[in-house]
Amino acid sequence: MMSLHSWFRSPTLQRYFAWMFFKAILYIILFCTVLVFLIDFTELLRRTSSIEGVPIASVLTLSLIRTPSIMEQILPFTILIGSMATLFMLSRRLELVVARGAGISVWQFMLPGFAVALFLGLFATMVFNPGIDYLNDRARTLEGDIFNRDTKLIVGKQSEVWLRKAGRSEDIILGAARALNDGAHLIGVSLIRQSRQGRLIQRIDADSAALDGNQWVLTNATVTGVETQKRLLDTYALEMDLSVEEVRDGFSKATQRSFWSLPELIEKARTADLPTYRYSLQFNTLLAQPFFFIAMVVIAATVSLRFIRSGNTSGLIMAGIAAGFILYVLRSLAEDLGSSGVVQPVVAAWLPTLLALVLGFTLLLHQEDG
Questions:
Q1: Which long-range contacts (CB under 8 A, 24 or more apart) does 344-352 make?
Q2: Residue 267, in any domain of the structure
Q3: Across 47-61, 109-123, 207-221, 265-279, which has the greatest mean pLDDT?
Q4: Can you give the pTM of this predicted structure?
Q5: Do 248 and 280 share a domain, yes or no?
Q6: Are 210 and 322 in a shared domain?
Q7: Which of 128, 274, 341, 348 has its CA 20 to 30 A from that of 89?
Q8: Residues 299, 248 within the same domain
Q9: Higher model confidence: residue 295 or residue 148?
Q10: Please, what is the average pLDDT of the chain?
Q11: For residues 250 and 232, what is the distance between their CA atoms, to the nearest angstrom?
Q12: Does 99 share its domain with 244?
């Protein structure tokens, strides 16, 4: 029987199992990346087919720089599927049987998998996420150039969000400190109307703005025109081709910032007495990400080892899909509660990870050690 001490003194076995996990996960990531790119590229080609003068190189570039952002959302599931594939391959080649015959427990041959998940989680949080933040800025700029009427997003230095809406005769730039009621009510509003050539038409500053039918009603508004005097109005109604969905999407994108910039953004928001729910939730979610990846490996072991013994491959696949779906729903629900302030962001970010770890380790302990 191989003791735990002997196992740690056997780097060859550790490296072999670690490489098997890493290779399988990497293949799954590459496959998903190509698949996501092809789907996104096809969709962009469909959307640009009615727009004249759009080079295919621009569409290709936009799809390439959008793909990493999409991949970040599905990385946990690539860890889950890759780990399940690793255990399935090791079992098919009887390597798990040999390892157990040598006295290696499930915890020992899963340890390299945990280490690989931890490494990938740290890399995704500290390196991949900041790179995605840069690519997202590039993607928004390029998307605004291609789809002239789409909304562009600018993130201000004091935690405000600016949306630029390009119209046929004029451009509207709308800034707000906060968005309530899913984007239907804005606080701390600044609105700039300018011609397509960039000439200022009008500037409006208001305490708030609310959507009423097909127009936005601004409260306590200061209206300044190029050739007119400044006017102070209790309410000011303005028809504007800016939907609630575009406002909500803009504020949502504004919170997707780099891991390294989030502490400063949280501090600035607190200083300005602005809510920090979304920033704090994203920061804690990124902190918890390496452990969430480990939880994926634990769940993969729990699901895979049980079905591998019975030879039920279809059951293995279905169980993996079900486990991934349940975790996705749980995490999405927790994030929604955390971003709205119903639950503390720390709790919303860490609870799904801790539940997955505790449940996975408990089931694996009961399954393997009785």
A1: 345/276, 345/277, 345/280, 345/281, 345/283, 345/284, 346/280, 346/284, 348/281, 348/284, 349/281, 349/284, 349/285, 349/287, 349/288, 350/284, 350/288, 352/292, 352/327
A2: no
A3: 109-123
A4: 0.73
A5: no
A6: no
A7: 128
A8: no
A9: 295
A10: 80
A11: 28
A12: no
The two structure tokens encoding residue 215: 């127009």
Judged against a pLDDT cut of 60, whether residue 262 lies above it is answered with yes
- What token pair was written down for 87? 């255990």
Q: Are 202 and 186 in contact (CB under 8 A)?
A: no
Same domain, 189 and 55: no
Which pair of structure tokens corresponds to residue 295?
């939880």
At residue 128, the pLDDT reads: 94
Q: Do 283 and 138 fall into the same domain?
A: yes
Could you tell me the two tokens for 11? 């780097």
Task: Compute the distance between CA of residue 134 and CA of residue 117 in angstroms, rounded to an integer.
Answer: 25
Give the pLDDT band of residue 149 (cuts 50, 70, 90).
Answer: very low
In a domain, 265, yes or no: no
Q: Is 175 part of a structural domain of the chain?
A: yes
- Chain centroid offset of residue 345 CA: 15
- Do residues 68 and 124 make contact, with C-beta atoms less than 8 angstroms apart? no
Q: Does residue 236 contact residue 217 with C-beta atoms inside 8 Å?
A: yes
Phi, psi of 272 (to 5 degrees): -85, 5
How far is the CA of 14 from the CAs of 21, 125, 270, in angstroms? 11, 25, 46
Same domain, 137 and 17: yes
The pair of three-digit structure tokens given for residue 122, joined into one six-digit string: 């740290």
Strand runs labelled E in 177-287: 178-180, 185-195, 200-212, 215-225, 231-239
* Domain span holding position 315: 4-146+275-369
At 155, the pLDDT band (50, 70, 90 cuts) reads very low
